[in-house]
Hints:
The chain is mainly beta. It has one helix at residues 35-51; strands spanning 6-12, 15-21, 58-69, 77-87, 91-101, 109-122. The chain contains one helix and six strands; from the N terminus they run E-E-H-E-E-E-E.
Amino acid sequence: MRHIGCEVTNVQPGFVEARIQISDFHKQHDGLLHGGVIATLADIVAGFAVHTLVNKDVSTVTIDMMISFLEACRNDYLIARGNVVRHGRTTSFAQAVVFASTNGVDPELLIATAQATFALRQLPP
Length: 125
């Protein structure tokens, strides 16, 4: 998270919101935001949303993720929201939406949606 400048802005059980202020190192050669940054942010908010529902001795690991890129992004910020759709004993299913924003507070344009499955793993004592 630190490496891409991700800041968590809201945490509730089963829900996480985060944002990134876009810099030149997030962009491709043509000035558009790189899809890998969008996918990484979607994975972070979906995974952390699941993490809010597990005990401290359980880790969450992404085992599958599908993302749909809807729009290109030239804005100054990304805002992403992840929420848990179904939480089970060994796996959880979550979704994420990623928005472009000019001020970092108000989501303005939906640029991607994602869904992911997470394994719930007991940490060693």
